[in-house]
From TrEMBL:
Residues 260-371 form the Thiolase C-terminal domain. This is Thiolase family protein. The lineage of its organism: Bacteria, Pseudomonadati, Pseudomonadota, Alphaproteobacteria, Hyphomicrobiales. PANTHER family: ACETYL-COA ACETYLTRANSFERASE, CYTOSOLIC, ACETYL-COA C-ACYLTRANSFERASE. The keyword Transferase applies. One of its GO terms (molecular function) is acetyl-CoA C-acyltransferase activity.
Amino acid sequence: MNAVIVAARRTAVAPRGGAFARIEPHDLASRVIEEVLADAGLAPDAVEDVILGNALYGGGNPARRAALAAGIRETVPALTVDSQCCAGLDAILLAAERINAGAADVIVAGGVESFSRAPIRQRRPREPGEAPLAYDRPPFTPWPERDPDMIPAAAVLAAELGISRAAQEAFAVESHLKGRGGSATGEIVAVEGLARDAFTRALTPAIAARLKSLAGEGAHAVTAATVAVEADAAAVVLVVSERRLEGLGAPGRPLRILAGARRGGDPTRPGLAPIEAAKAALERAGHAAGGLAAAEIMEAFAVQAMACIDGIGLDRACVNRSGGALSRGHPIGASGAILMVRLWHELQREAGGSAGLAAIAAAGGLGSALVGEV
């Protein structure tokens, strides 16, 4: 593979109704696109394609709106990908595949999401006189009995794997601790004056223990401490071909995309889907899980992250070294792209030849993973 990430930026992550509550998704994304291009010393005219993940906007093409708002030429196509939580990482994988196929040399890719600006969803009546039916999410399988809501599914997984509430809470406390101590220098584009992830806090075991169960019983319950909050954010990387590297004013060392993989799994156990995707990507890249310098694993739920870390065989010391989604929040379509931005910056601190992994799960039993090397 010859696709290379030369710049990576994101907004801070703001909980729903917070600092970004009035900003439309394309405006969030366009500001990050502008910064990524400036980092690489490229004019908007150099971009050949824009691919962004988004899950909640309710139609249209937010990638196209973001591209135009960022000053990219009208003749440049734009594509919005919706694979729910995997969408931001899938957009980057798709960009890499297009680069490797020779279809383009410069692609802007990533994800954007706004829970705050998401449309209110209603289904049209089937019969005259019926009222519209409001709904929170679409179905992810054709079988209602195999299409669980994510929080109950996490509680079931915790009970099946024997991952206790206390262990989940300890994982969440550590995520906040790492988030408070982590460095976001050169990573976050300030929007509306917000230049740090707003949700990260001094979570303690005592505070976590006082929270009521959201799902599950007793020893394996899932609580607000062990579930990532709904949030708004955008994250973008610049993917180029090796032949386009010369002359770029990139802010760090290029990250070569060694391999990527997407896998499907049991829709009733969606949190486990990234395990096989990560294993496939690592095998293609020729790297062992234990030899990675850094890994960014999605923390939609503490139990899901813990299961993936163990299932992939990762050293916990290399995982989410500056905190994860439990301490930031989960802007669905942007989350996978945030993992890649984080991985790019984490690997900048490592020696040459260091490899890293990003992996994420999605509703319906989907998993995506990418292995890169600086």
